[in-house]
Amino acid sequence: MKASADILWQDLNSPAGPTSLKLATPALQSVYLHPGQLFVTSEPAVVTTILGSCVAVCLWEPALGVGGINHYLLPTGVRTAATGLRYGNVAIEHLLERLQRAGARQECLQAKVFGGACVLEAMRGKENHLGAKNVDIARLALQDAGIPVMSSDVGGGRGRKLIFYPHDGNALVKLL
């Protein structure tokens, strides 16, 4: 039996599959990202968020160690002060702007995409549920921006806990 401090995580940089990892990172700035928020940094940090039908787009520029993440709830909306970062098209646009202000070059960015589950039992089996629409807008926006998606963990019927290290692009994800 595993110790309670050990949790099965999927390291998306490793082809080995789920592993048991200790997640203590006391030297890093630690941030919890709520829905409708984003975070950008050029300093070592660890960002944690929980996703259901929401999506998190993680971007980083490897050479500079600059990265960021957003967490949005709905695929598209009009960019206004009142809408904040709830909409994917707005949240991705803001994330790109903030990364560029931090010195990142769009042509050097890499992406990872997480979330987009179908968490409502009544919608399971339908291909155009909210989570799928959230994932589609992320993929379309990243394609339009010329940013490659290096890995993703999307869809399904369960939420996810995501831990992202924006300074180096590493990500760990666990199904809930």
Keywords:
five-stranded mixed β-sheet; 176 residues; six-stranded mixed β-sheet; disordered N terminus; alpha+beta; 2 helices; globular
Blueprint of the fold:
Elements: E1 7-11, E2 18-21, E3 29-32, E4 37-41, E5 45-51, E6 55-61, E7 66-71, H1 88-101, E8 110-115, H2 130-145, E9 149-154, E10 160-165, E11 170-175
Parallel strand pairs: 3-5, 8-9
Antiparallel strand pairs: 1-2, 1-11, 4-7, 5-10, 6-7, 6-8, 10-11
Describe this structure in words.
This protein has 176 residues and is of the alpha+beta class. It has a single domain (28-175), classed as 60s Ribosomal Protein L30, Chain: A (2-Layer Sandwich). It is 17% helix and 35% strand. The protein has 2 helices and 11 strands; from the N terminus they run βββββββαβαβββ. It has helices spanning 88-101, 130-145, and strands spanning 7-11, 18-21, 29-32, 37-41, 45-51, 55-61, 66-71, 110-115, 149-154, 160-165, 170-175. The strands form 2 sheets. It has a 6-stranded mixed β-sheet with strand order 2-1-11-10-5-3, with no helix packed on it. Strands 4-7-6-8-9 form a 5-stranded mixed β-sheet, with helices on one face. Helix 2 (130-145) links the parallel strand 8 (110-115) and strand 9. Helix 1 packs parallel to helix 2.
